[in-house]
Design a protein that fits this description.
Number of helices: 3
Structural class: alpha+beta
Radius of gyration: 14 Å
Largest sheet: 5 strands, antiparallel
CATH class: Alpha Beta
CATH topology: HIT family, subunit A
Oligomer: single chain
Bound molecules: adenosine monophosphate, zinc ion
Strand order of the largest sheet: 1-2-3-5-4
Order of helices and strands: HEEEHEHE
CATH superfamily: HIT-like
CATH architecture: 2-Layer Sandwich
Distance between the termini: 32 Å
């Protein structure tokens, strides 16, 4: 499949790993928007939240528990933000479900 993040999971495109297990992969964003900015993705190709199925519920729950753990590992004790962009209006550029984890500075709200 011609998917950038599937290629990253397969090791065909290099990335800076933070965590990996049989279900998910976490790596640092190539264009960080805050001092800490990493992505957590399922290894299963799911295009976005809009494509989630009932059977993915546990996987998504496990990803969030891992996000909490990785945020601690990255010393985001003062808070952080989890973002998943969906489709064109959501600003999604890579059509493989990913959760941005941003922290290390005070983030603005609302987003632009
Ligand atoms: P989104 O715009 O929500 O689809 O987010 C895609 C993210 O992937 C952006 O923050 C990009 O900087 C990031 N990205 C694109 N290519 C790579 C790559 N090769 N390694 C790490 N992050 C990437
Ligand atoms: Zn993919």
């Amino acid at each position: 499949m011609d998917c950038l993040f599937c290629k990253i999971i397969a090791g065909e495109i290099p990335s800076n790993a933070l965590y990996e297990d049989e279900k998910m992969y976490a790596f640092y964003d190539i264009d960080p928007q805050s001092p800490v900015h990493f992505l957590v993705i399922p290894k299963k190709h799911i295009a976005s939240v809009d494509d989630l199925e009932e059977e993915d519920a546990q996987l998504v729950g496990e990803i969030f528990l891992k996000i909490k753990e990785l945020a601690k590992k990255e010393n985001l004790d003062n808070g952080y933000r989890v973002i998943t962009n969906i489709g064109e209006d959501g600003g999604q550029t890579v059509p493989h479900l990913h959760f941005h984890v941003l922290g290390g500075r005070s983030l603005q709200w609302p987003p632009g």
